[in-house]
Amino acid sequence: MKSSNSNISDSDFRSSTDGNIYHIPALLEETIEGLKIKPDGMYVDVTFGGGGHSREILKQLSAKGRLIGFDQDEDAMQNALDDERFTFVRSNFRYLSNFLKYHNIEKVDGILADLGVSFHHFDNAERGFSFRFDGKLDMRMNTRSLLTAEKVVNDYSEEQLADVFYLYGEMHNSRRIASTLVRARSSQRIETIEQFLEVLKPFFPKEREKKEMAKVFQALRIEVNKEMQALQELLQQSVEVLKPNGRLVVLTYHSLEDRLVKNFIRSGNFEGKLEKDFFGNILAPFKAVNNKVIVASDEEVERNPRARSAKLRVAEKLSS
After folding, report:
1. How far is Cα 28 from Cα 23, in angstroms, rounded to an integer?
2. Predicted model pTM
3. Using CA atoms, how far apart are residues 220 and 296, in angstroms rounded to an integer?
C-alpha cells in the first residue's frame, strides 16, 4: 500500500464555519485502499468528523453507490456533504444496525472507523478535551449526553476513579491520584481544567508532565464517551451488517482499542480466545487482510504528528 497522501491538501478538511482545520485523517490512502471499494456499493463511515474519508469514498462511487456518515457530534453536521449519494446520521456508531434498518439498508459492502479525536476537539477550548486551555471539564463528543468529565471527577467513588485511570490511562499510580482527587473535591467541587491540573501536578515531574497529563485526559475522555463499550458494540454489529467479503477498516490510536480490534478480527471475541469446529477450523467471522498492522510512514508523521500512534487493521467478512 502507498505510504504517501501528499495529494491531499489541508483545505479538504476545513470546517465550513470557522475556516480552521477540522481533522486531517491519518493513513488516508491506505484506509481507502483497505475498503476495496465497489463503485455501486454501499458504505458506512461511522466517524464522519470533517468528512475527509467520506470525500475520498465518494470519489470512487458511481451514481448508484451510496455512503452513510455517522457522527454523534453536532459540530460535524456542519461538514455534511452536499451529494445525493450521501446521508448524514447524527448518532453514535453503537446504533449502527438500528439506523441502517431505519434507512432500509440490510447489508453494506464496507465499514470505516477512524477512532482518533479530531483536531477540532483538541483545539476547541470550550469542549474541554485538552489541558492546553482552561475551561469546563466537559469532554463530551455528544453534547446531549448527561455525563461530563466534571461529573466523573466529582461524583465517581475513589475506587471507580482508580479503575478509570488504570484501565484507560494505564497509570500505575491510579489509586493515589484517585485518593488525592477525592480529598480535594471534599472541600471544593472541581469544575475547571485549571482546578483539575492543580490537584494533579504534584504527581508528575516537569519532564514527563505533558505525557502523563495526556494519559489522564485520555482516560477521562474514554469514560465520558463510553468509547470501549461503543467500539465493542460496533464490532459485534459489523458481523451482522456486512455482506460476505465486505470489508471492516479500523484506525486505532492506543493499545486498548487496538487489542479489542485485533482480538475480534482474529477470533470473533474480545479475549482473543480461538474456538474451532469439529474439523479444527477456526470459528471466526473475519479474516485479516493485513496480518501485520499498518502504521504511518516517517514522511506522514513529519507532516501530521498525530498520525504517529495510528494503527490500521483491515478485515474481510468470511462468506460462510
Report:
1. 12
2. 0.86
3. 26
Give residue 21's pLDDT: 54
d(CA 79, CA 169): 31
Residue ranges per structural domain of the chain: 10-119+227-317, 146-224
Tell me the backbone φ, ψ of residue 217, rounded to 5 degrees: -65, -35
CB under 8 Å to 39, separation ≥6 — which residues?
Answer: 60, 61, 62, 64, 65
Residue 35 and residue 315: Cα distance in Å, rounded?
A: 9
Strands (E), the chain: 42-45, 66-70, 86-89, 108-114, 242-252, 286-288, 294-295, 311-317
Cell 472541581 sits on residue: 190
Q: At 90, list the grid cell.
A: 447524527
Counting every residue written for the chain, the total comes to 320
Assess if CATH 1.10.150.170 describes domain 146-224.
yes
Quote the CA–CA distance of 314 and 35 in Å, as a whole number. Answer: 8
Question: Residue 44 — φ and ψ, nearest 5°?
Answer: -130, 125
Q: What is the pLDDT of residue 132?
A: 56
Quote the Cα angle for 214-216-217, to 5°. 65
What is each CA distance from 85 to 60, 132, 173, 188, in whole angstroms?
12, 39, 50, 52
The stretches in the chain having pLDDT less than 70 are 1-23, 117-134, 320
The backbone torsions φ and ψ at residue 282, rounded to the nearest 5 degrees and listed phi first, read -70, 130
The answer as to CATH 3.40.50.150 being correct for domain 10-119+227-317 is yes
Grid cell digits, residue 18 = 470557522
Q: Are 114 and 49 in contact (CB under 8 A)?
A: yes
What is the per-residue pLDDT for 15? 36
* Closest C-alpha to 114, from 273, 314, 276, 318: 314
